[in-house]
Design goal:
It is built from 5 helices and 5 strands. By secondary structure, the protein is an alpha/beta fold. It has one domain: Response regulator (Rossmann fold, 3-Layer(aba) Sandwich), CATH 3.40.50.2300. Strand 3, helix 3 and strand 4 form a beta-alpha-beta unit. Helix 2 runs parallel beside helix 3. The protein is globular.
């Protein structure tokens, strides 16, 4: 059934960024799930099995890298596409994320929402 709406999980603790992503993704026709830290994000991901995850790295309770590691340990979680959002530009954390099979990453200060949407479409539409 190709008409079914795709589900995107946004795991982001910065409210302004989360709101922008949520609103734009909804306008684009996606179902949006939201979590404010890695613990919530991991629970939601494993329960709801979204089509793609937008994941911040620096978050309270459990950071994005820890969430990603736990996600990839799950049979379903091994293959879900993940796009990382980070405030870190040239950092070993990005290298660690790439090791965990991240589809792409965006540095938040350089982010253009239309680019993020284009990458999401490339991956799941």
């Amino acid at each position: 059934m190709t008409d079914q709406k795709k589900i995107i999980l946004v795991v982001e603790d910065e409210e302004p960024m989360q709101l922008v992503l949520r609103d734009v993704l909804k306008v684009e026709g996606y179902i949006v799930l939201e979590a404010k830290n890695g613990i919530e994000g991991l629970e939601l991901a494993l329960k709801e099995h979204p089509d793609l995850i937008l994941l911040d790295i620096l978050m309270p309770k459990m950071d994005g890298l820890e969430m990603l590691k736990n996600l990839r340990a799950d049979e379903w979680g091994r293959s879900v596409p993940v796009i990382v959002l980070t405030n870190l530009s040239d950092n070993e954390d990005i290298a660690k994320a790439v090791e965990e099979d991240v589809f792409e990453y965006f540095v938040k200060t350089d982010i253009r929402i239309d680019e993020v949407i284009a990458r999401i479409r490339e991956k799941i539409d």
